[in-house]
Amino acid sequence: MSTDIANVATATRSIRNPVLAGFHPDPSILRVDDDYYLATSTFEWYPGVRVHHSRDLVNWRTLSGVITDRRLLDLRGCGDSNGVWAPDLTYHDGLFYLVYSDVASFASGYWDPQNFLVTAEDIAGPWSDPVKLHGRGFDAALFHDEDGTTWLLSMSADWRPGRDRFGGIEIQQYDRVERRLVGSPRMLFTGTSVGVTEGPHIYRHDGWYWLITAEGGTSWEHQVTVARSRELFGPYEVDPDGPLLTSVGRPDLRLQKAGHGSLVRTQTDEWYLAHLVGRPYSPLGSCVLGRETAIQRVEWPSGEWPKIAGGVPADEVVAPDLPAHPWPAEPETDHFDAPELGLCWSTLRRPASTDWVDLHARPSYLRIHGGQSPVGRQAPSLVARRVGAMHCSLETVVEFDPADHRQLAGITAYYNTLNWHHLYLTRDDDGRTVLQLLSSDNGRRTPYPDLTVDVSGVTRVGLRAVFDGPVVRFDYDLGAGWQPAGVDLDATILSDEHAALIIDGEPAAWGFTGSFLGLWVQDLGGDGAYADFDLATYREQ
User: Fold this and answer.
1) What's the whole-number average pLDDT of the chain?
2) CB count, 10 Å around CB of 11?
3) What is the tens place of the pLDDT at every residue in 398-418?
4) CA dihedral of 68, 279, 59, 123, whole degrees rounded to 10
5) What domain range includes position 501?
6) Which parts of the sequence belong to the Beta-xylosidase C-terminal Concanavalin A-like domain (predicted)?
7) Residue 163's domain is classified under what CATH number?
8) Same domain, 308 and 346
């Protein structure tokens, strides 16, 4: 692209939100020279902490995930929506620093969080062995001060009955040379009356320390709160004009749940906020796509508070004064020709290791060795990708020879262990290979025996899952073209809202992950069953 064309493109471009569609929550944004990086939460999915790359804040590509093996984090046994929460990505003296929380529980006012730190000279790794930090709270983040010191921030959890579980934001020094926390923690900020104060980030600007926090919880009451102090340890004064960003009280907005933000300053001294949003299918309804990442322009005149136009999330904002930098489009079809899984894929609770994900045994096929049942949390065999649009589909061709009813392979529209739809091949008691459909709604399973299809003698079966707004449909192809599986299924059970369960004021289950489309193989008897998938095509409408 010539300079003239690039300048014209820059003048007319805009950021269209969300910039990361589908399950990409809790963004931490970072600029290093001319490169921008976004790290997002991954919870029970590998690779952990997805990292995205841009050079203009408009066009983004997925680089990879940081946590690719159990050396960095072991998610065996991880509960639904537990695992990797709110990563923080910073850069100092030629080194990338990534802090992430591994949250183990919700029950009875406990979280059991553990925070870790890894470093790398290159964003692509290799990443160091993890440094174990404290477990006093989650949403941990580093701040590198101008005097050369580094500080760890986090929310401060309080388990005691009758107390505020979100006790405030605490700070403790981190020694980069000794790779450990030093000194004593101090309470920095107890938040506003909105409560649920978390997601802290500190920035040094214009002679002030600026503390950015998330408040109100991660759903409809979410907001970004700004406070400032002349001294690192406070006291911090809250912006008298209210939150920097929120969608509270505006059910008409397309982007809801606006909060959990982090700031970035461009090479041309423009400021932007990356933050979390959700797109409900109806006003304050189900967010099947999960919590996504958006970017807003921030006006920050010298001596004043940072402001976002209207204080609400905009669908489209002016792009920074940077040359346009688009990336090649992701191919619709994965033919499984590469030696490793493509960047669009994630795996549930275990890394995509060769003992169960095999791209070499049969060239141009993905062989998935069967794993545990839908409720198994140690070794499931699910290879899936995020649902990024209200109308989208995933289709595949599978070859599978099940021995009995304990062996299943097929395609799924998936949320968590309790909420999913699955179209699969298996062996019936009469010896036939059959295609069957099963749904789970908060653990209540619904079979559809009248829809069973005899596929005996068919070597290759096409399978397709379609998201059509609030409906999920499945189709199959036995060689004569696509046929409907015969029932419309509820897509809204695959949402954060549906997954959440509060008992006596405490979360018994939570929903943070958004929906997936995936390839699922189960070998409930542990007899060595596997399925070969010839291709996978994902399309958005």
Assistant:
1) 95
2) 11
3) 999 999 999 999 999 999 999
4) -20
5) 333-540
6) 333-539
7) 2.115.10.20
8) no
Structure tokens at 78: 């991880």
Residues 100, 101, 102, 106: what is their CA dihedral angle, to the nearest 10 degrees?
Answer: -150
Is 198 among the residues known to form the active site?
yes
Q: Which two tokens stand for residue 450?
A: 């009248």
Do 103 and 113 form a contact (C-beta atoms < 8 A)? yes
Strand partners, 281: none
Cα distances (Å, whole numbers) of residue 312 to 106, 223, 424, 498: 30, 10, 44, 26
Distance CA 422, CA 265 (A): 45
4 found inside a domain: no
Among candidate residues 532, 527, 521, 526, the one with its CA nearest the CA of residue 426: 521
Q: Which residue has the tokens 């619709």?
A: 332
- Distance (Å, whole) CA 465 – CA 476: 9
Three-state SS sequence of 356-373: CEECCCCCCCEEEECECC
Query: Do residues 381 and 522 touch, judged by C-beta distance below 8 A?
Result: yes
Q: Is 26 among the catalytic positions?
A: yes
How far does Cα 297 stand from its chain's mean position? 23
Residues 165-189 as b or e (16 or more Cβ within 10 Å = b): bbbbbbbbbbebeeeebeeebeebb
Euclidean distance between CA atoms 313 and 317, whole angstroms: 9
Confidence of residue 23 (pLDDT cuts 50, 70, 90): very high
- Give a yes or no: residue 8 inside a domain: no
pLDDT of residue 505: 67
Strand partners of residue 270: none
Inside any domain, residue 66: yes
**Is the whole-model pTM more than 0.90?**
yes
Cα–Cα dist 134/140, whole Å: 9
CB 498 within 8 A of CB 292: no
Q: Alpha-carbon distance 508 to 1, whole Å?
A: 53
Amino acid at 363: P
Tokens 């809801």 sit at which residue?
256
**DSSP character at residue 209:** E
Q: How sure is the predictor about 510, in pLDDT bands with cuts at 50, 70 and 90?
A: confident
- The verdict on 269 and 401 lying in the same domain is no
Angle in degrees, CA 80, 50, 123, rounded to 5 = 145
411 touches 463 (CB < 8 A): yes
Q: Read out DSSP for 384-395?
A: EEE--SSEEEEE
Instruction: Give the residue from 318, 349, 367 where a domain finishes.
Output: 318
Q: Which of 88, 170, 198, 270 is catalytic?
A: 198
pLDDT at residue 3 greater than cutoff 50? no
Q: Angle at the Cα of 224 (from 152 to 187), degrees rounded to 5?
A: 35
Looking at the structure, tell me whether residues 249 and 351 fall in a common domain: no
